[in-house]
């Protein structure tokens, strides 16, 4: 097996002490569930992948990814379900805070 050297991070330790690696990222054509959304948000927050790379790889809009970041920061993984995102969605004027900024 050949392992290519890279200057990019391959693993990061997240706040709860667990390790997140590039292998933990969902496939590009994934079916979105709360745990996969949270994995992508954590990967961006901890520098495992760039925000722009995540948006491009998963075909996400800025607004969609920002809503995941806000929901995850406010209420954790449970808020990333589709029904919870609709329930906790903030009015348009309150959505200026971006917790996943570069």
Describe the structure.
- This protein is mainly α and 102 residues long.
- The chain has a domain at 33-90: Arc Repressor Mutant, subunit A.
- Helices cover 40% and strands 6% of the residues.
- The protein has four helices and two strands.
- The chain has helices at 34-45, 51-58, 62-75, 82-88, and strands at residues 11-13, 19-21.
- The chain has a two-stranded antiparallel sheet.
- A hairpin with a 5-residue loop joins strand 1 and strand 2.
- It is globular, with a radius of gyration of 14 Å.
- The N and C termini lie far apart (34 Å).
- The model has no long low-confidence stretch (mean pLDDT 85).
- Pfam families: DUF1153 (PF06627).
- This is DUF1153 domain-containing protein.
Instruction: Let me know the CATH homologous superfamily of the domain at 33-90.
Output: Winged helix-like DNA-binding domain superfamily/Winged helix DNA-binding domain
In the CATH hierarchy, the architecture of the domain at 33-90 is Orthogonal Bundle
Please bin the fraction of helical residues: 40-55%
Helix count, per DSSP?
4
Organism: Paracoccus haeundaensis
Protein name: DUF1153 domain-containing protein
Pfam family, one: DUF1153
GO molecular function: sequence-specific DNA binding
